[in-house]
Amino acid sequence: MGTQPSIEDQFLTKVHQVIKDNLDNENFSVEDLANSVGLSRSMLHRKLIKLTGKSASEHITRSRLLNAKSILEDNSATVSETAYKVGFKSPSYFNKVFKKYFNVSPGDVKKGMITDRTVSLIDSDPKVSKLDYSKKLFAKQEILIISFIILCITIGVYLWVSLSEPNQKSIAVLPFKNLSEDVTNQYFVDGMMEELLINLSGIEGLKVISRTSSEKYRGSDKSVSQIAKELRVSHVIEGSVQKSENNVKIFVQLIDAQRDQHLWSESFTREFVEIFNVQSEIARQVATELNTVLSPEEKEEIEKTYTKNMEAYSLYLKGRYFWHRRTEQDVKKSIEYFNQALIQDSNYSLAYAGLADAYHILAFYGWYSWVEGWEKSKEYANIALSINSNLAEAHATLGCIATWYDWNWEKAEQELKMAIKLRPSYASAYQYYSEYQRVLGNYEDAIRQIDIAIELNPNSLIMYHIRSLYYYHTGEYSRALRDGEKVFEIEKQNILQLWLNFKIHIRQGSEVEAVTELQKLIYIKEPDLNSEKLLGNIYANKGIEGIVEWVIHRQVTENYFNYSNAVIDNRFIAELFSLNNEWDSVMVYLRRYVESDIVRPDWFRYSADFKKLENDPGFMALLKEIGLDEL
Length: 631
Description:
Structural class: alpha/beta
CATH class of the largest domain: Mainly Alpha
CATH architecture of the largest domain: Alpha Horseshoe
Number of domains: 4
């Protein structure tokens, strides 16, 4: 009596039979397979991974390709006909996928060119009938030679690609397309992209590029491979979302950008209330396709639902949509939506985190009361963490508050390290940690952390400006100007960088270049003014010192350049006086600065502008007075 097949073998046999029965159905999906075998998609995925190490989509693709290979070897159909017979909508995509699996094209298989890898793939699957390839493999000596050449080329290409591509798994999520009839659904589309980014960034060993950098390619006509090269990533996700009433249709595809190959794509049609399941499922599937094993903690975090109230979720997404715009008006509008979300669900931790982020931005840029803004930000961040202690954004915000407002360096480091631990791909956390290191005068560590932030967010204007600022303070002017060029690539007339370049050129003795930067600043203020003639006359009569005097006069008398709020302008004016070595005046304006409610330690204790005062008794007394003398 033969051995009775195990329950597992019977299950796998059923799975493969269902796939075989639907080979020519191009719309046959993982969801269809799950329904046919009486399981949910997630249960089917877990069971197949446990039994075979391969996902449901891998089983479907594998069966289609093996059957396609049999058809091609029998020479009973053209390549295009074969593609449609095994459920591929596009013959060109079929060619790419087939070549990825077998290292030869479908056309080469029709000619009898079969690689060793082909045989090993067939033999490794116990549920696929083994075919006799020996006659074809050894029919002609030429086939062996050609196979050997192909193998050598493949190895060479593999090694070349391996050496040239990023040294870790890295991914960028491009802005999702809004296919909804209602254009106002853009907030929801962007929210889907944001949620996927957050889920992916919690996976250890996966570098996830920030949304800020990906946003640059919204509507871009650049190829995926070109975008990936600019972002220095190995993989790219593209997607589209169509929302109508209570239904959502989402299409997502994962692309190996280094090899220009589609690894996985799927379409999801769900009711709006099921959206959280789709978001976590996409993240899990991407992890599977990248051969990334999720820890129990990572799975739990990905599958976590922060609210069951869909209205609250929708309002939260609207809040984040406006918060990302980063203008004063938009950030204040985001607060309205976060508060409305909390009316719907008073225990919604992400909405509290959104409020913390909003008040942090408002206070930092002087758009809200310095004291009240930071206090509100702290309050909401703590509420968010009392509900969910693993929100990286809330920890990072508390780290900022401890740095800029409380001057609690131990607390700052603790919170910022926690944010990085929770979301290793959260670029802003590295930026904040970098700024904390700069406050303490640790420029080497500060540069190291901002380097990581830029790697994760390579299109961030502010991060390049920050690094340029660091190099200015360490006297590495060439590097500072090089990062300034990156800033201007992103925004041609960036006021912060123009002022920094103005100071850099003066410090290194490039006076003409300094005047040129000032001309650009004046043009922003008064485009009709002949600044070239004005500054030319001043420079001819009084040199660069006269230029600086003119700037100081205009700034002191009328806040001409509107650098920022009036309090911070006192510090800015002190910097300008330092360019002319007028140290008594520097001390006058530093005194005015520290007597205000807004004092930022990074612009004071270890500033290159005030380095010559580091042994001055008056300067040291000022530091002691505000508690920065022991930094």
